[in-house]
């Protein structure tokens, strides 16, 4: 069978962050409780001249050599934050990256499942042989809507991931015949307009866990194997609307295999799951990039990861769908991810105060659906000049009669 997997991968956590403890104090909450419950230490935030298009391009640019650009035959971008209801952001990203014109490209949407939906299509295209040796570029890019002073405020964030998928995987090789899926129709969280992001937290929690149990059970049935959950998967990566959700997810699968004590579950979680949360703890919600953030986290965080280790992945999308799939770590995985210097990039982010965070959220919302916009590049003590200027990052220069104009800094 044809090998298919990730050849290169990068994770982009934007250029600003907000300390969760400081936000908790500003909202009259216990900082320790907020951080310990949600397992989020800080959340990423975009300046007004960044959006899902710039994030996706900025995640992809570092992994692409000229020969990669020539070899790409498919570009799929998963997002639930597109700035246009018709034009896909894949076209903007294609143009910004300077890819060859013979590329099939489009945008996919299914809440936080969008990134894995894009990956699935790319994997199947390559596995079928219809790619004729060409590679796929998969991108997932999203950020939160404004939720000032609401309880959801502590689980927000933003990030993008870019994957080069090919017949020569260096990071993870997918077990393409091992997959389980579960779906239902539910309104848990959704975005009914360009401004609003609403839903029911309790419904979302139970829908997530139903989808996890349903898709994992389907995965086991499809493999036709007797699977010892403790030993079959060396590591488990779960969708993280917030990092703390991964513990509830892991507890569900642990008890599904066999009932066990809270201490046993905690030990299993610390060994198999906690290393996958390195980046979600730093950036908050990663939306469709969640599984990819977990993979990068694992390979940077844990020195014990080795080639041949099997990883179980769970992807979830509100509305709803759950998918459980697996992959095997490749020989060059750790060095490939470490070459992206993701930690260094996150370390260079600027911390914003709560007042600055609220200002940015209000400015960004004021841009939505406006025909003409010129972002203010001088805000935050001219952060653009310090972080962006001359660094080759894509930014939104202007919106003119709804036309979005981007440029490399």
Short description:
By secondary structure, the protein is an alpha/beta fold.
Task: Kindly describe this structure.
- This protein has 409 residues and is an alpha/beta fold.
- Helix content is 38%, strand content 24%.
- It has a nine-stranded mixed beta sheet with strand order 5-4-6-7-1-8-13-12-11, sandwiched between helices.
- It is globular.
- The N and C termini lie far apart (44 Å).
- The mean pLDDT is 96.
Give the helices and strands, then pairings:
Blueprint: E1 5-12, E2 16-19, H1 20-26, H2 31-38, E3 42-45, H3 52-60, H4 66-71, E4 72-78, H5 89-97, E5 104-108, H6 114-128, E6 135-143, E7 158-166, E8 172-183, E9 189-190, E10 198-199, H7 201-223, H8 229-232, E11 235-238, H9 245-257, H10 262-272, H11 280-283, H12 290-301, E12 310-317, E13 321-329, H13 333-338, H14 342-347, E14 350-351, H15 354-367, H16 379-388, E15 394-400, E16 403-408
Parallel strand pairs: 2-14, 4-5, 4-6, 11-12
Antiparallel strand pairs: 1-7, 1-8, 2-3, 6-7, 8-13, 9-10, 12-13, 15-16
Helix pairs in contact: 1-2, 3-5, 7-9, 9-10
Percent of residues in beta strands:
15-25%
Given the structure, what is the number of helices? 16
Q: How many β-strand stretches? A: 16
| Measured distance between first and last alpha carbons | 44 Å
Low-confidence segments: none
Structural class: alpha/beta
* Radius of gyration, CA atoms, in whole angstroms: 20 Å
Q: Write down the domain tally.
A: 2
Please name the CATH architecture of the largest domain. Answer: 3-Layer(aba) Sandwich
Fill in the CATH topology of the largest domain: Peroxisomal Thiolase, Chain A, domain 1
- Give the proportion of residues in helices: 25-40%
Shape call: globular
